[in-house]
Amino acid sequence: MDIQQKIEELAALLLSPIDAFIVDIQVIPDGTKKIVRLFIDTDSGITINQCAAVSRQLGETLELQNTIPSHYVLEVSSPDLTKPLKLLRQYRKNVGRRFRVRFRNNGSITEIIALLNEIKGDILTFTTDKNENYTIQFNEIIESIEELPW
Asked: Where is 144: in which H helix or E strand?
């Protein structure tokens, strides 16, 4: 089992009691050490205190099990607004927000800026400022980033 899989397994155990989930794990070599980034969230948003608690618990567990044999830096946080959404679960708390969405559309790639109106199963419905409606299956989305208001 590689380091990333082991971190995922350990983190999932810590996240379950607070109903949180893993959005992404990055293990980045940096000279003689590794940078381990764990991005977590909940359906209603994650707090700094929750991230800190997970970081402490995960750090202790990684040390006890000697999971990462080299020096490392552990960073636990929520994904920031500039990061693309990766999981369908992330969209649920973002209904009513605007996104820049790139998706596969009949063999080509389409990009829209639109409001996320609804999610039914794995189907997302968006409406552009010009009242154009798009119904997109989640697995057709290439990238989706929240558009912040100016």
From this structure: strand 141-146
Provide the whole-model pTM. Answer: 0.83
Q: How far does the chain reach from its first CA to its final CA, in angstroms?
A: 45
Integer Cα distance of 85 and 145 in angstroms: 6
Query: Hey, is 74 helix, strand or coil?
Result: strand
Longest dimension (CA), the chain: 56
Q: Are strands 33-42 and 71-77 parallel, antiparallel or unpaired?
A: parallel
Question: β-pairing, 108-120 with 98-105?
Answer: antiparallel
Amino acid, single-letter form, for residue 107? G
* All residues at 6 or more sequence positions from 110 whose CB lies less than 8 Å from its CB, including other chains: 102, 103, 104
Q: Catalogue all structural domains in the chain, each as residue range(s) with its CATH number.
A: 3-77 (3.30.300.70), 88-146 (2.30.30.520)
**pLDDT tens-digit readout, 61-111:** 999 998 888 899 999 999 987 889 999 999 999 999 999 999 999 899 999
pLDDT at 124 over 90: yes
